[in-house]
Design a protein that fits this description.
Layout: H1 3-11, H2 15-21, H3 24-38, E1 44-50, H4 55-60, H5 64-74, E2 85-91, E3 96-101, H6 103-106, H7 111-126, H8 130-148, E4 164-165
Parallel strand pairs: 1-2, 1-4
Antiparallel strand pairs: 2-3
Helix pairs in contact: 3-8, 7-8
Amino acid sequence: MNKLIRYFKHLSATRWQVKRRLPRHSIIAIEAAIRDSEKAHMGELRFAVEAGLDWPELFKGVSARDRAIEVFSHLRIWDTEHNSGVLIYLLLADHKVEIVADRGINNQVIPSAWIAICREMENNFRAEKFESGILCGIKAITQLLQQYYPVNQHKRNEISNDPVIL
């Protein structure tokens, strides 16, 4: 993508665009899906969405992946007992989804599985199906976490289930 076009898309991106694509009822549905997902495995799941990057990040050439890793760290998703935290990060201005997984689950899942989930979600987003795309991604990640981190003991919620709007 041309740098000037990317700059324009990011600098004109607003929280209103996030709220238009993910109204309150969608945020509630995403939170409920994460809560229900976490009852089925020993992992922790978090969703974050950002309208666009700020000027300094754009000037540095920060990619959606770079920003997702930063958000993963900032939200302390790596700080779980079983190293099984997973972040779904959506950068609206770039129309990109990134999944960042902690080392425990990431060592179990082949990279192409994460990529396939991201692409399926992006296909939904292109069709303006934001809520269903996110719920589809949560369901796919739940299946992976169930496979590698099945519930085998009492599980406490280590990370908030609230979607984060950055």
